[in-house]
């Protein structure tokens, strides 16, 4: 089944791409989660119009993402957590925790944009990648300290 992607999907394509997926995957996962729509002729025309109008918006979004990246690189987050023997945390630090800490600093970043492979379970200083735009990747410095 051919679908048009509405959002970037890892290992599948970028927003606006027309891709082939199995029918069940499209009907049960992609369409209900608003990740894609069926590639009908009217949807294809509508997507072409959006691409034509959105060319200017994309460059503006990239510039805003670069400005935000500069602010994030200058920022250093400090998170205080309880830890036990061997500096192991009771619990962990997740992308949700990082997103909330950034919100306290006045920066609204979705947790999906914070590319944390595994939750942080030790004390220390970490550099976490953040993808603000398809072409803008930055890192935030996070220090996890013992309370």
Question: How would you explain this protein's 3D organization?
Answer:
This protein is of the alpha+beta class. It has 2 domains: 59 residues, Ribosomal Protein L9, domain 1, CATH 3.40.5.10; 81 residues, Roll (Ribosomal Protein L9, domain 2). The protein has a 3-stranded antiparallel beta sheet with strand order 2-1-3, with helices on one face. Strands 4-8-7 form a 3-stranded mixed beta sheet. Strand 7 and strand 8 form a beta hairpin. It starts with a strand and ends with a strand. The mean pLDDT is 90.
Shape: elongated
Corresponding CATH superfamily of the largest domain: Ribosomal protein L9, C-terminal domain
The CATH topology annotation of the largest domain reads as: Ribosomal Protein L9, domain 2
- CATH top-level class of the largest domain: Alpha Beta
Secondary-structure class:
alpha+beta
How many E-type strands?
8
Task: Give the helices and strands as they follow along the chain.
Answer: EEHEHEEHEEE
Low-confidence blocks of residues: none
Helix segment tally: 3
Beta-strand percentage range: 25-35%
Highlighted features:
three-stranded antiparallel β-sheet; 2 domains; elongated; Ribosomal Protein L9, domain 1; three-stranded mixed β-sheet; alpha+beta; 147 residues; 3 helices; Ribosomal Protein L9, domain 2
In short:
The chain is α+β, with helices and mostly antiparallel strands and 147 residues long.
Please describe the topology of this protein.
Elements: E1 2-5, E2 18-20, H1 23-30, E3 36-38, H2 41-74, E4 76-81, E5 88-93, H3 95-104, E6 120-122, E7 124-133, E8 136-146
Parallel strand pairs: 4-8
Antiparallel strand pairs: 1-2, 1-3, 5-6, 7-8
């Amino acid at each position: 089944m051919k679908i048009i992607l509405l959002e970037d999907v890892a290992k599948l394509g970028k927003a606006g791409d027309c891709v082939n997926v199995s029918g069940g995957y499209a009907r049960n996962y992609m369409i209900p989660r608003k990740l894609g729509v069926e590639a009908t002729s009217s949807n294809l025309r509508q997507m072409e119009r959006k691409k034509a109008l959105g060319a200017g918006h994309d460059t503006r979004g990239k510039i805003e993402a670069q400005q935000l990246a500069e602010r994030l690189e200058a920022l250093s987050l400090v998170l205080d957590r309880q830890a036990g023997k061997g500096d192991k945390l009771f619990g962990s630090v997740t992308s949700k925790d990082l997103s909330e800490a950034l919100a306290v600093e006045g920066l609204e970043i979705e947790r999906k944009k914070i590319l944390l492979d595994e939750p942080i379970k030790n004390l220390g200083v970490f550099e976490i990648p953040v993808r603000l735009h398809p072409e803008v990747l930055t890192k935030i410095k996070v220090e996890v300290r013992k309370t």
